[in-house]
Amino acid sequence: MLSTALPVSAREPPSAAIINPELIRKYSVPGPRYTSYPSANHFSPDLEPVAVERALREDNETSASPLSLYFHLPFCESRCWFCGCNTVITRRKAEAADYLDVLVKEIELTASRMDRRRPVTQIHLGGGTPTFFPPDQLRRLGEVIEVQFPNRSESCEFSVEIDPRRLTEDHVVALSEMGATRASLGVQDTHPSVQLAIHRFQPHALNQQAFDWLGDHGFSSINVDLIYGLPLQTEASFSQTIDAVLALEPDRLSVFGYAHIPWIKPAQKIFDARGQLPGPETRLAMFLQAHRQLTAAGFVDIGLDHFARLDDTLALALKNGTLHRNFQGYSTGAEASLYGFGMSSISATRDTYRQNHKGLDEWCKSVMMGQLPVERGWRLTEEDQRRRWVIMALMCTRRLNFQEASDTLGVNFKNHFRAELERALPLMDDGLIAANREGLYVTSAGSPLLRVIAALFDEHFRSAGGHSKVI
Ligand code: SF4
Fold first, then answer.
1. Rounded to the nearest whole angstrom, what is the distance from the C-alpha of residue 130 to the centroid of ligand 1?
2. pTM
3. pLDDT tens-digit profile of 237-284?
4. Span 205-229, mean pLDDT?
5. Domains of the chain, with CATH numbers?
6. What residues flank ligand 1, with Cβ below 6 Å?
7. pLDDT of 140-169, one tens digit each?
8. Looking only at Cα atoms, what is the longest distance across the chain?
9. Which residue owns the Cα nearest ligand 1 atom 3?
10. Which has the closest alpha carbon to 419: 466, 465, 387, 451?
11. Cβ distance 373 to 366 under 8 Å?
C-alpha cells in the first residue's frame, strides 16, 4: 500500500505569481478542485467494492494515523442563490434538536467501530450554518464529541464556519467552550446591490461584530470567504470589497470563483434569467485584481483560492513543504483519517472515500435503522493511489522530483507517466511548467492554473460535467 505522505523535498516556496492573463484565457477550463482524488462526483453508489465495515476495520489497523472529524450542520434560514453546498433551508429551529438526536446516534454507531485511542488533530463544524443551532445545542454536540473522542491532541485545530448574520455572542461563547479557536466567515461581497442580487443581505457592521466577538473569546485565526463572479460585481466594486475585508485584519482569505452549475443547483437559474452575471473578462479582471491587492497587502498565495498572512501556519506549511489538502481545502494537518458525520458528509481513509446520504430523510432513516448511512464511495486502486500522490504533490508543493516519485510510487515515474508527460509538453512550451533531468515544477505563471496541471494526471477526469471553471 502506498504512503499518502507528500514529498518533503520542496523547501522553497514558489515565487510570487507573475500572472499572464493570456495563458489563463487559453487554459482556464472547468476542472476538479482536487480536495480528493478521484473527485467526489466520481464516487460510485455500488458500495460493495468500498466494503464500509471492512474499511473501518482496516483503518483501525493503520492506527498510527490521527483522526480528523467533520460535522455537517446543514440548516440555513434562507437560500443564498449562488450556494453550491448541501443545505436544508428552514426557519424551524426545532429541526436542529431533531437533527442532533440523529447525529449523536450516527457518531455513536461509527465511534463504536473506531480505535479512539488515536489522537484527534482536527475538528471542523461545517454547513449549512452551524450557528443555526442554538448555543445549548452546540454545547450538547461539544459534550458528545468530548465523550466519544476523548483523546484530543494538544495542538488539535478546531474550526467552525460562521455566518455573521446568524451569530450571537452566546454562540461564540458556546463554540469557545467546545474548544473552537478558528473561524471561517462567509462574507462573499460587501456591496448591498450585489448582496440583494444574490439574496444574502449582510451589512458590514455584522462582519465587524463577528470579528470583535471572536477576538474577545479567544479565537486565534479568522478566515474570510469571498466570491468573485457574482451578479453586478465589477473589478472596482470587488476591489472595494477586498479593502473592506482587509480592514478587519483577517489571518487568511479564500477568494473563490463563483461556480455556475444551474443544472445541479437550480436556484442559480435566476442569474441566467436576470442576465447580471459578469462575463469571463470581468471575472478574470477580478481574479487578477484580488491577487494583486492581497499579495500587495502581504498575503502569501497558498494556491488556488487561498491566501494567508506571512506568519500564518498555512504560509509556513507551504514554505516547509508540509501543506496538505482535504475536503476543507488546504490544511496544515499531517495526513489523518477523515471521519465525516451528518448528511452528505464525506469520510476518507487511506484507500477509501465514503459519502453519507445527501438527502436528509435518507440519512435519518439509515441511521435510525442502525446502519452506517453511506450512499456512495470509492476504493482507490494502487493506480488511483499513485495518481492521488502525484496530484496532491502538485497541488501542495507545486513540484515533482522524479527519483522521489519513483521511490515512493514503486514505478519508474517517467516511464509510467510517459503519456501524461507528453500531454504536459504544450504547457511547458507556454511556460506553465518547467522541467529538468531531476523533475518538474509549476512556474509562477502556472500557479493560477494548478488544477489544469494536476488534471494531466487524472485518469477519471473525462468530461467537464459538474466542475466549475478554474478562473
Ligand atoms: S448561508 Fe452559506 S450554506 Fe447557507 S445558503 Fe448561504 S452560502 Fe449556502
1. 10
2. 0.92
3. 999 999 999 999 999 999 999 999 999 999 999 999 999 999 989 999
4. 98
5. 1-38+382-471 (1.10.10.920), 43-379 (3.80.30.20)
6. 76, 79-80, 83, 85, 87, 127-129, 163, 186
7. 999 999 999 999 999 999 999 999 999 999
8. 62
9. 128
10. 387
11. yes
Please check whether residue 447 is in contact with residue 395, taking contact to mean a CB–CB distance below 8 angstroms. Answer: no
Cα 72 to ligand 1 centre (Å): 13
Q: What is the DSSP letter of 165?
A: G
In the β-sheet with 439-442, what is the strand arrangement from edge to edge?
A: 399-401, 439-442, 433-435
What Å distances lie between residue 453 and 40, 285, 327, 403, 420, CA to CA? 19, 22, 19, 20, 10
- The helix (run of H) or strand (run of E) holding residue 205 is helix 204-216
Mean pLDDT of 203-210: 98
Q: Which three cell numbers stand for residue 140?
A: 450538547
What's the CA-to-centroid distance between 86 and ligand 1, angstroms?
9
CA distances from 196 to 126, 242, 369, 464 (A): 24, 18, 43, 30
Distance in Å, CA 33 to ligand 1 centroid:
20
User: Which residues are within 8 A (CB) of 71 and not within 5 positions of it... i.e. 6 or more apart?
Assistant: 103, 123, 124, 125, 126, 141, 145, 340, 341, 342, 345
